[in-house]
Design a protein that fits this description.
alpha/beta, Alpha-Beta Plaits, Rossmann fold, five-stranded parallel β-sheet, 3 domains, 20 helices, six-stranded mixed β-sheet, Arc Repressor Mutant, subunit A
Length: 520
């Protein structure tokens, strides 16, 4: 049971509606229950979409209608009296006892006044004869019943306000925050925000979920309030029921998916701000899992920092497949840590920039080629606009595919590209000048001269730089010993690795590991 219910709004600029209903008037949600199909179709054609009336469902059996009413908010029910299985009078009793709708109108072919008396005695608001129904008269009757019943409901709420406040003070509440987003995007200024807030107010108040907040320039959210004396299982089931009601009711009138992020439970209202942020983070998981609509916040487990992608063998065809796998794993890890989408995109942009820098400088392309691919306008555009992790991955792979193809074309004009690629693949082996010169179809002196002109380094300096970079990458992985790292990076022994590493980086291996929080 909830601890109380109300709505809090701060108004901002009006915006366009995204609801299926029209006009700025309140929607009147009705259902039609009649076992004669022609009667159902006729009544629906008179009412649906007329003067703010929305037909939420039509049913041939009362039992089906009751199941619908349990999960969906309806203002007025139009029903026949004589139906198979459950007659109209029994159906109305169920509606009134379980408070499933505000207004009830009987549309019957019986002129006998005794039927009308019985119907009115059990809570019917209007009795209409089918043969005398016109579109105009039916619309007016629905509007009259709606205005009458909504007025009664308002008075009832006012009368019970003080009692609710007293109960809320006496009862210890358990809270959760529920942040709502449209298609995973912010509801700070959505299309149809006024209509959305109005609908949510009705749902939250009708089912006593708690308090609706609609602050200007912030997400719409609900402070769910549950009885602190209920069990954890009872609260879980109640919240699931509320979430189902929200989704069922909103989906009838709003185009697009509504995503709900749920915080953890808390007892003190000063924690609301913190739990609101947690609920926002939970809702942002839609970016990683667009097949879901409800996300619960969970504290992320401590994990390693999100690192850069491997650039070795960039010019090999299999590199693109490896990059795709690495990126998919990286995005999965980002989702597990419940990082905000903005943070994930910023980290990814920096990683892509760093990877591009390593490739452009490591393969010594011509300056005009490096200058072109250092322009990252397209990179920034597709990262910032990606609506899901799948879209981000696909567009990143396509971008790198274009970059790799351009690098291949640039490499055809560069006689040393094949040699540089060969060095990358054989760092852990013995690399000799005659072998490398032969690959470039040059003599050893000509090869050494051309190599230094293009890279600014001697062949051995370049190889050692590459081996040091390989060793640095392996040093970040704790499963390798220093001797194993030396062998994998192509150094003859660990002592030689220590000397070259210090000369190249200006740091000892111990200092390097300490910089990254690793054991020396």
């Amino acid at each position: 049971m909830a601890c109380g219910s109300r709505a809090v709004r701060e108004k901002g600029p009006e915006s366009h509606t995204c609801f299926r209903s029209s006009g700025g008037r309140n929607m009147i949600r009705i259902i039609i229950v009649d076992d004669e199909i022609l009667s159902r179709i006729g009544l629906q054609s008179f009412l649906d979409g007329k003067e703010g009336i929305v037909v939420s469902g039509i049913f041939g059996e009362a039992e089906e209608a009751l199941h619908f009413l349990e999960e969906n908010m309806v203002d007025v029910v139009l029903t026949d009296i004589e139906m198979a299985e459950m007659d109209g009078l029994e159906f109305i009793r169920e509606i009134r006892e379980r408070q499933l709708a505000l207004g009830v109108i009987i549309v019957s072919c019986h002129e006998d006044f005794s039927y009308a008396q019985r119907a009115i005695s059990i809570g019917t608001d209007s009795y209409i004869l089918k043969h005398s129904v016109t579109e105009k008269s039916l619309i007016q009757e629905v509007k009259n019943v709606y205005e009458k019943t909504v007025g009664k409901e308002t008075e009832k709420k006012k009368a019970g306000t003080e009692e609710k406040k007293e109960k809320q003070i006496r009862r210890q509440c358990i809270y959760r925050i529920g942040v709502l987003q449209l298609n995973g995007r912010s509801t700070e200024q959505p299309e149809g925000s006024e209509m959305l807030v109005h609908l949510l107010e009705e749902i939250v108040n009708r089912y006593q979920m708690g308090t609706l907040f609609s602050p200007y320039n912030r997400e719409i959210f609900i402070l769910f309030q549950m009885d602190g004396q209920s069990s954890e299982e009872e609260r879980r089931k109640l919240l699931e029921h509320w979430l189902r009601l929200l989704q069922n009711n909103i989906s009838q009138y709003l185009t697009g998916a509504v995503v709900i992020g749920i915080s953890q439970e808390f007892e003190e209202l000063p924690e609301t701000r913190k739990e609101y942020q947690h609920a926002v983070l939970a809702a942002e998981q839609y970016f990683f899992h667009p097949e879901q609509n409800v996300f619960f916040y969970k504290r992320p487990s401590v994990s390693n920092a999100l690192g850069i992608f491997e650039t070795k063998d960039f010019l090999e065809e299999q590199w693109l497949e490896r990059f795709s796998r690495e990126l998919e794993q990286w995005l999965e890890l980002s989702g597990e840590q419940q990082l905000s989408v903005t943070v994930v995109k910023n980290i990814f942009l920096q990683n892509m920039r760093q990877m591009m820098h390593y490739i452009l400088s490591g393969y010594h392309f011509e300056e005009h080629f490096r200058g072109k691919w250092r322009q990252d306008t397209e990179l920034i555009a597709f990262i910032s606009s990606a609506a899901s992790s799948v879209e981000l991955k696909d567009r990143a792979v396509e971008y790198m595919k274009e970059f790799q193809a351009a690098a291949f074309r640039a490499g055809v004009q560069n006689p040393l590209i094949e040699v540089l690629n060969y060095i990358d693949r054989h760092l852990d082996g013995k690399l000799t000048l005659p072998e490398l010169a032969q690959l470039s179809c040059m003599s050893v002196p000509s090869f050494c001269k051309k190599f230094k002109e293009q890279t600014g380094m001697t062949v051995m300096q370049y190889i050692n730089e590459k081996r040091v970079a390989c060793a640095a990458s392996l040093l970040k992985q704790s499963q390798y010993s220093l001797d194993e790292i030396a062998a994998l990076a192509g150094f003859s022994n660990s002592n030689y690795l220590l000397r070259v590493f210090k000369k190249s980086t200006g740091k000892t291996i111990g200092q390097f590991r300490k910089q990254y929080g690793l054991r020396e």
